[in-house]
């Protein structure tokens, strides 16, 4: 009789899982054995009636899934901003003192804010729907039947079954334990698993790394520990983002610069100049509004939101928006072989007997071992498929597989009075280094085959740390892994994009190297056994930089390897699907989990590939590069405007002249040279890997560009003031300055739009055509109060703009050489 038959105390389990172990006998003296009549009820879980009572009392796990902000938060976040407040006040003033065309900037802000709300709302719906798809469903035993339920359907007192990789979703007390090891590192920071026995407490947020069992829910909903943490920092809370923090830094300095400049401008226009009050206010507002790069913040949010939507359509769940930015900066991706380069399924291809073992007997052992584990891994599933269970064998003790041990085991009563203990795991762990069988295993590993050793242990207790010592090798089980059909193309993509791929696996190093070799990964021929890696971080980083394939890597080593790569300045993405990947996923800059992976990996990963396709990764990386590369590109447009606006205001204050522009003029210029082009450029393809130092990269262009543009515009304005006189002079002066500033700004746009494509050239031409229409169509001339007078000054404006454009071209190239980023 197998273990499953032995444990069948309550009849067959319709849920397909092994019936409950009688936990009472395992309780220690601190936790007394419950009365006999209570044990069956606890082992069977709650009844349907008890569940209904608890639901009626509100004792349910009612914590909402927070994958994104609520609609109210989205609206408030987009509407109630510092710069919307400033512009809102200015807009309110302009509505009373000037024609509607001078208040256009307010309508633009309303439109932009509306776009931001709509895009983020669309992203929220995508996130919420994908979060439901990717949500793991714990197994709950009710009325003796094990079934998967939604996390929100768990009630107080539910009996929840757990196994390797399962996350503890609510707080509880262990009822059943079979070698149950819990990793509480996400809660305590301690990496070592904790052995749990019946009566021990488990906390939500931890996860199972080995063994199995069941626990009773003692705290659900907002009382659970993980829920309390979630209330303090919901999933939508943005982690560090260089792009967002850089923009915040720029805006902070702009605000401080804007305050004294605005005060000086107000005094200049209202006190020093004896103009009409309403006209002075209009020109003052015209000088303040363009200093604010409000569109940059909005465009960043829109680009992130669109990125989330695009990835969502490819069944990729983005759990933290800055993950998109992180992906753009990735230069090293660490891949776990199993489940990433290979498919989950395996096949037994050969059974090689050792030391004169009998094949029939070995087959019985393998069948019994497969049946002894209620939650078999991929290797054991292949063995179960190949070798049926022997009905006359009874499992008396089992040791679940652990990635730290590299083996599993079980003790059996063989039906004829004979007892035996068997181990199944990594040959190079169970065998001494000089064993002759290792030579054959090496050859098999070189072919990309996975080899497990079946060994008989002389120890009487499986939990004895020396159980593997002196174990007698009995047979080699040869398994073949199925390569993912898209793995080779994906690795080739990373190579082309200058992203280093590192295969990091717990399997035999030679076997891992063979798999990587089949996929034509550069460096696969020089596979490193992680047991030989240096402990020193700097030395380990050196080895990691020089090699690409690593085998026999422990979970802690995976974490150390990620840290070593980061210490060398690398931005690291880590992929994985098993519990042994969790620590490394958590520490990596970007953690990528397969949708079919353990719940623990999905919980800590920023990116979840719901379709389990490794081939999705290039799309994910490309989306990150597109978003960040384009935002960095268009940020220059916004900040050039900020710089020249501040400079013009300062020049006006110092020279005590009327301000150059009305708000309508700058609304027109901003729309044609920044707003519309930036929206299209931000959505364009961009494969360039994002580089660090966002503020430095943007400001090194914005400052010289803005200074040259502002200087050229003011020179044109001063010349126009000396050239024109009489009625219509003010309008002619403004028109000449507007023409010059437009030509300089469109040249900045032309530089930013490089390299040219047909649609980028069409975009620049369309913006130029739009400005030309305003200058030649009579009703548009009247609406924007722009009309060029004569030919001398307009052509002078064109000449000054051409000189300024040449100056900007030279300055940008000089900056590239002098201050490379």
Instruction: Give the termini separation.
Output: 70 Å
Q: Indicate the structural class.
A: alpha/beta
Q: Quick one: biggest sheet?
A: 8 strands, mixed
The strand line-up of the biggest sheet is: 8-21-20-19-9-16-18-17
Low-confidence stretches: 1-40, 230-239
Radius of gyration in whole Å, from Cα? 34 Å
Look at the structure and give the mean pLDDT.
80
Number of E-state strands: 21
Shape: elongated
Q: Tell me the strand percentage band.
A: 15-25%
User: So how many helices?
Assistant: 29
Query: What is the helix content?
Result: 40-55%
Domain P-type ATPase A: 138-232
Biased composition (Low complexity): 18-27
Transmembrane segments: 79-98, 104-121, 253-272, 292-311, 634-653, 665-686, 698-720, 732-752, 759-780, 792-812
Main location: membrane
Which SSEs are present, and which pair or pack?
Layout: H1 3-6, H2 38-44, H3 48-56, H4 71-79, H5 82-97, H6 104-134, E1 139-142, E2 145-148, E3 159-162, E4 171-183, H7 185-188, E5 194-195, E6 201-202, E7 207-219, H8 225-232, H9 242-272, H10 277-288, H11 294-313, E8 316-318, H12 322-329, E9 332-335, E10 342-353, H13 359-372, H14 378-386, E11 394-402, E12 407-413, E13 419-425, H15 427-430, H16 437-446, E14 449-457, E15 472-483, H17 487-496, E16 500-504, H18 509-518, E17 528-529, H19 537-546, E18 549-551, H20 555-567, E19 572-576, H21 582-587, E20 590-594, H22 599-604, E21 607-609, H23 617-655, H24 663-682, H25 694-723, H26 729-752, H27 758-776, H28 778-784, H29 792-818
Parallel strand pairs: 9-16, 9-19, 16-18, 17-18, 19-20, 20-21
Antiparallel strand pairs: 1-2, 1-3, 3-7, 4-5, 4-6, 4-7, 8-21, 10-15, 11-12, 12-13, 13-14, 14-15
Helix pairs in contact: 4-6, 6-11, 9-10, 9-23, 10-24, 11-23, 12-23, 13-14, 16-18, 19-20, 23-24, 23-25, 23-26, 24-26, 24-27, 25-26, 25-29, 26-27, 26-29, 27-28
